[in-house]
Write a structure and sequence with these properties.
The chain is mainly alpha-helical. It contains three helices and no strands. 5% of the residues are buried.
């Protein structure tokens, strides 16, 4: 799914940007692990707002695929009942 790859790439990119900014700002006060955790928290919060459009496209695609699969399963059940 192209939308999943795009959304995942954007999340990873946002994390990398947050980590880079925090590294340059705080690397003298914090070690690597706390910086990674802080970058994870900050990027998660920003992704709620910044990546809303990409997340909505991904959710729409997943919903469409789920509806198609559900429809096919209903058709298969109906075909079995007719036999």
């Amino acid at each position: 799914m192209k939308e999943f790859a795009i959304y995942s790439g954007l999340r990873a990119g946002l994390f990398a940007v947050c980590f880079a900014i925090l590294w340059f700002a705080l690397h003298t006060w914090l070690s690597l692990f706390p910086l990674l955790l802080l970058a994870l928290i900050v990027s998660s919060i920003f992704s709620i707002f910044v990546l809303r459009a990409a997340r909505d496209r991904l959710a729409g695609k997943i919903e469409t695929r789920a509806a198609k699969i559900s429809h096919r399963l209903d058709q298969a059940r109906t075909a079995e009942d007719d036999d």
